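hey can u check if this looks right to u? its 155 residues, i copy pasted from the old doc so theres a chance i mangled smth
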Amino acid sequence: MTHTHHHSSIRSADPLAPRDTAQAIWRGTIGKCPNCGEGHLYRAYLKVADKCDHCGEELYHQRADDAPAYFTISIVGHIVIAGALIMERAFSPATWIHMALWLPLTLILCLTMLPAVKGALIGLQWSKRMHGFGGVDDEHEPEPVAAAADAGARR
């Protein structure tokens, strides 16, 4: 008897069943598909795969945009500033020592954390069915009446 792997078994029978947010965020953080946890989230450093290479979940419609960079900068900033202040207070090293330590550390932390933070945000979007992860496209809010009237008056 031959066993074939059936990918649809990964998906819930109920397309609107709740998704485990913590699990999806963790899977994204480690660079795995938020749906199955097996396939790769990225095809390159920060390039999200069009779909999971294991379960086929479509990933192309994620909308992380600039949020991963903002969150990464905030996290790294807290680590580096706290470390620099503690080091200054305890040892008062020369400025060149601070530069030699904190500049490379800032760069390394940012570059290593960015894919994890982006993956976590994609996992969150998937778990909350945002940006097409629920099977339907995002609905755009209608243009406010006042803005539409102003636009018509300028024409």
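The helical segments are 21-29, 67-91, 95-127, 145-154.
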